[in-house]
Design goal:
mainly alpha; three-stranded mixed β-sheet; three-stranded antiparallel β-sheet; 12 helices; 10% strand
């Protein structure tokens, strides 16, 4: 998992979402406007579908097979298969994956919390911790076959992190951030079912379908404000055509 620079990110505005909806309709592509992030929605209706995206958030949401596209035009991509058996070489070269196979999905959540993810309060996650400290904790715990509770992990992460981390965070604060991020990926995220009911990532039904949720899901209303789209909200024919050409170019070249 790696964080992209903000300069490489897209600002998800109401107009941008409306453009995507229009392109999908024009090209006969099935789509859903997610209640929150698209990462939570994808592959929820069909467990046999494959997630294709630009980052690895899907792994944190529990997807076992993810295709990360680095460049559409150059046809560069990576495949993450979370069912691959751990060999000696894999354990050596991919310690995070080895830890995931031993301790479960929570280790991916804690990695996201440490390094920074979409819901992190700080862009860099737990500031001053980073990759080096995280893997030192993993190495220590895995060698000792020790407990990997959030309390123990937070204590060791604080010990191995930079001095600035110990000044900025208490052990309890680090533990709470690990739990907060883990709860988000495993419980708090939401998605629509086929009818427009809203479910949590854990499978709990949050609300029944309504006229408003169906309109939102189908992109018939402004996804940010909930107001109906009007002609003055859609003055983007030039941008739409440009956007459509970019998509076509990605498929053709």
């Amino acid at each position: 998992m790696r964080r992209r620079e903000k300069a490489d990110s897209i600002v998800i505005t109401s107009t941008f979402i409306a453009m995507c909806v229009k392109v999908c309709k024009e090209m006969f592509i099935n789509y859903v406007v997610a209640p929150q992030e698209a990462d939570m929605q994808v592959c929820r209706r069909d467990k046999n579908s494959i997630l294709v995206c630009r980052d690895s958030d899907g792994v944190a949401y529990g997807h076992k097979y993810v295709v990360i596209v680095d460049s559409w035009s150059k046809e560069e991509y990576r495949v993450i298969d979370m069912t691959t058996p751990v060999t000696e070489d894999i354990a050596k070269n991919y310690p995070l994956y080895a830890a995931y196979k031993r301790y479960g999905i929570k280790i991916i959540h804690w990695w996201a919390a440490t390094m920074g993810c979409d819901i992190s309060k700080d862009d860099c996650g737990i500031s001053g911790a980073g990759t080096k400290a995280f893997f030192k904790v993993l190495d220590d715990v895995m060698k000792r076959e020790g407990d990997l509770s959030p309390t123990v992990f937070a204590k060791k992460l604080r010990e191995h992190a930079q001095p600035s981390t110990r000044l900025s965070y208490s052990q309890t604060q680090i533990r709470d951030e690990l739990l907060r991020v883990s709860n988000w990926f495993s419980k708090d995220g939401t998605f629509y079912d086929q009818d427009g009911c809203i479910y949590s990532i854990s499978g709990r039904k949050i609300s029944l379908a309504s006229n408003q949720t169906v309109k939102h899901m189908k992109g018939r209303i402004d996804p940010k404000s909930g107001a109906p789209f009007t002609s003055d909200l859609l003055p983007f024919q030039f941008f739409y055509l440009l956007f459509k050409c970019c998509i076509l170019e990605s498929f053709l070249f």
